Structures are given as C-alpha cells and as structure tokens.
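pinging the channel bc i need a second pair of eyes. not urgent but kinda urgent?? the chain im working w is below, pasted from the shared doc
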Amino acid sequence: MSSTSEVTQLLLNWSDGDKQAVDKLMPLVYDELYRLATSYMRRESSEHTLQSTALVNEAYLKLVDQTRVNWQNRSHFFGIASQVMRRILVDYARRNLAEKRGGNAETISLDDAVIFKREKSSEIIALDEALKSLAKIDERRQKVVELRFFGGLTFEETAEVLDVSKNTVVRDWNFAKAWLYRQIKKDN
C-alpha cells in the first residue's frame, strides 16, 4: 500500500476540484477497499450473491460521486467508505427480504470479538435500525461500531478518524456492543 501522505494529498487535491486526483487515487486505495469488502463478505451467508469485487466497485462509484465531501485524510476516506459499504449491504438485504416477502427476524448473539458471527438479511437490517437509534443517543459510539465492525478499522485507526484516544474508543466499543445487544433483543 502506498504512503498515507500520498493518499491524503490526492484526497485534498480531489476536494479542491482536481478530477485527475480521483483517477490516481483508485489504484492506491483499491487493495484496502477490497480487504474491507472481503471482511464484510466473510460475515455474509455462503449463499450471498454479492461478491467482494462488486461491493468494492459499487462503493467506489458512490464515493467518486460525492461532491460535498471535504476529504481530510486517508482515515476519513476509509471511514466514509465503510459507511457506504454498510449502506450497500443494508440495501441489498432489504431487497433480498422484499423478494422473500418478509420473514421473521432472528435473535442476534454478541460476543467480544464481533457484533454477530453470521449476518443474514434480517440481521443486517436489525443492526442498521439499532445503529440509527444509537446515533440519536450517542453519535460517536455509533461511529465507533460502524468504523470497527463495518469498516474493519483497528482501535487505533478508529481513534484517529474520530480524533479521540484509543481508550475512549475501547470504552465506546464495549458500551455500544452491550447497548446494541439489548436494543436488538428488545425489538425481537
């Protein structure tokens, strides 16, 4: 992967209207975007029809269409990328459930490593709804979950994106997991 400063400079150039910066950026960030997408897809059902490459491509197309984002740095870009991938997977899950004409939501178990082990369409939607509720109460904790779980960022990277300490991220992560568990369990 190329240097963080090179990616950051291209993002700043892009924010300043340099359209060529976008073309130079893709080869530099593709591998990391693919790693994020692969991480997401590992959590999906084995019957999932969306592939990592398709998720990367769709996310990248949505990212380059962003006109109102003032890119700050590499971490900011990957934070937004994780949000975009989350939305794509939630939309995909909603379409999948609509095709099946509903279905009962399943209980989602939490453990210390991940929010849940295997995501299914109803679980993704339940998590998305719970994250929206969490954002109304504490937006930073919602962003911690989004960046860590959906974005695959480490505690350190999440702290950098949110401009807080690593210890704050760890506390927010632990609180958010417990809160989401209670919220999802209550809604089922």
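so Helices lie at 4-15, 19-42, 52-64, 74-99, 121-137, 139-150, 155-162, 166-187. and Residues 4-187 form one domain. — does that match what u expected or am i reading it wrong
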